[in-house]
Amino acid sequence: GDSVTQMEGPVTLSEEAFLTINCTYTATGYPSLFWYVQYPGEGLQLLLKATKADDKGSNKGFEATYRKETTSFHLEKGSVQVSDSAVYFCALSANSFGGMRFGAGTRLTVKP
Amino acid sequence: EAQVTQNPRYLITVTGKKLTVTCSQNMNHEYMSWYRQDPGLGLRQIYYSMNVEVTDKGDVPEGYKVSRKEKRNFPLILESPSPNQTSLYFCASRSGLNTDTQYFGPGTRLTVL
Asked: Nearest 10 degrees: CA dihedral of B35, B77, B54, A99?
């Protein structure tokens, strides 16, 4: 069935470092892909999304490109801040089932 | 303000005592779902509903029930909770298309003793 695999971490970076969190997926058909972020004690918030191949989602300096050929949707940011410390989830949504499938989450800690 | 609300936010109960977690959305969304979040497993879908009176099982439905009598409400029912249902629960909603953003509630932390 459809599934998402993401780099589990935890990931610890210094402020202004480059961030990559890997995400790959398995799906039949053409899923939509999402990155959600969860700050401590809160629910999930959409960070960015892409709904078709070669689309690039971007928000708050984060980017991810929907790569159908490598079935990937890696999250990147050029210069992380302490305020980016959170758990990041990659997810997919497809017509073949009624919800979203999530990766296990990657905890990011950014140190000053 | 567009939002998904859940109650209670925290609940400690004992094995076998029936409980209900409420969920409500004010965005007129057709689609609603429940997830549980466990360390190392991410979020797993329990049940979802495509519209009023239409519900279906997700990936981990055992031990849970849901109902969708009104468009805005989607309660999660644990008829006989067990310790393995201790988890963080999220309700979510979106409009009909799978390309649309899913909006999440703040979460309910449930502990079953």
From this structure: 0
